[in-house]
Description:
This protein is mostly beta strands.
Amino acid sequence: QLQLVESGGGLVQPGGSLRLSCAASGSTADDYAIGWFRQAPGKEREGVSCISRSGGNLNYADSVKGRFTISRDNAKNTVYLQMISLRPEDTAVYYCAAPRFRVCRSSWYTRAPEYDYRGQGTQVTVSS
């Protein structure tokens, strides 16, 4: 079993920045790729980013490329999502999750992300 807990969400003005954290426990976190997805009210889950177990493979949705950066510190069992140049359309609940099959796949972005474990989510609101 893997437990994931997100933190770092909040209210920020357009153009602002936030850093989300995802703390893992209950299992060996570096056995899992970790992804972030978001869900806005009335919308389907949207894959945002994913990082491989070693941290050597990173990928992003087109909508966040150049603005979001994913990283992980396996010594701290924590994955981060640094977000800059935030836009109102980034407003959503953000979740970290362990993708099914423990790898980052293109399907994370092409359909509703599938996962084995996820956290409770953290709200990000971008508004003036």
